[in-house]
Specification:
Low-confidence stretches: none
Largest sheet: 5 strands, parallel
CATH architecture of the largest domain: 3-Layer(aba) Sandwich
Strand content: 25-35%
CATH superfamily of the largest domain: Response regulator
Order of helices and strands: EHEHEHEHEHHEEEEEEHEEEEEH
CATH topology of the largest domain: Rossmann fold
Structural class: alpha/beta
Number of helices: 8
Radius of gyration: 21 Å
Number of strands: 16
Strand order of the largest sheet: 2-1-3-4-5
Helix content: 25-40%
């Protein structure tokens, strides 16, 4: 598990401090705060950024829109971004809309408004509207990373950190080295969503990450993962598992 990384582009130190405080309270990780378009562009393309909050007016000029135009020229690297402004001008709003932002937040804002704006931005980016509203164990997948809502806080779990997924009643439990996270997906839905050969169903109750296997005892139908978890290999899944395991080894 890791926190969602956010880049802040803001030129007012006081406003930046308020924003950072709210984000920390919401368990986000602020990677950097900058008012320089050059530095922001460098950070955007070189750092692990999940979401960007952009003040439209920097130094009294709409440089935030300029930044959005710059990153929009690289659709292969686009990340969700939210505009932030105290301006109520329709012209500013209409101009900002042309860059296709994933959110638009007016100052002053409160923590709840910020939380909703960021959730909506991620939902829009993943093209899964209302995900975090309608489901008690909501999750969405963006670029091999699950964004999961737990205790009203958004966290991210990379596929590469997952050891196994276990059925729990109507939900599934994602297990990493230290934690587990409940999501409202069946194992079949999980496999269809991630669409990667590294994860394979080995039992009616389990999907495992093949990269996390430590040992396999085929005579005992037993798989031992690197976190020392013992997973039973179901008979109906044995042939498919052996085929995948031989390819990987």
């Amino acid at each position: 598990m890791s926190k969602i990384n956010i880049l802040i582009i803001e030129d007012d130190p006081f406003e930046a401090e308020i924003l950072e405080t709210c984000l920390v309270q919401l368990q986000y990780n602020v990677v950097a705060i900058t008012s320089s378009l050059q530095e922001a562009t460098h950070l955007y393309f070189s750092s692990e950024i999940d979401l960007v909050i952009i003040d439209i007016f920097l130094g009294g000029k709409p440089k935030g829109i300029k930044f959005a135009e710059i990153i929009s020229k690289h659709p292969e690297a686009i990340k969700p971004f939210v505009f932030l402004t105290s301006s109520t001008s329709k012209l500013v709003f209409d101009t900002a809309k042309l860059t296709h932002p994933y959110g638009y937040l007016l100052k002053p804002f409160n923590e709840l408004q910020l939380q909703y704006a960021l959730e909506l931005a991620l939902e829009k980016f993943a093209n899964t509207p209302n995900t975090f509203i309608t489901a008690p164990y909501a999750s969405l997948l963006i670029d091999k990373t699950f964004f999961i809502k737990k205790n009203n806080i958004l966290i991210k779990v990379k596929l590469s950190d997952i050891y196994c997924i276990e059925v729990e009643d109507r939900y599934s439990s994602i297990k990493t080295a230290q934690e587990r996270f409940i999501i409202q997906l069946s194992l079949k839905q999980f496999l269809a969503k991630i669409n990667t050969p590294n994860f394979i169903r080995v039992h009616r109750n389990y999907v495992i990450n093949m990269d996390k296997i430590e040992r396999v005892f085929l005579s005992d139908n037993l798989i031992v993962l690197q976190n020392k978890a013992n997973i039973t290999l179901g008979r109906q899944y044995r042939q498919e598992f052996v085929r995948h395991y031989e390819i990987l080894t």
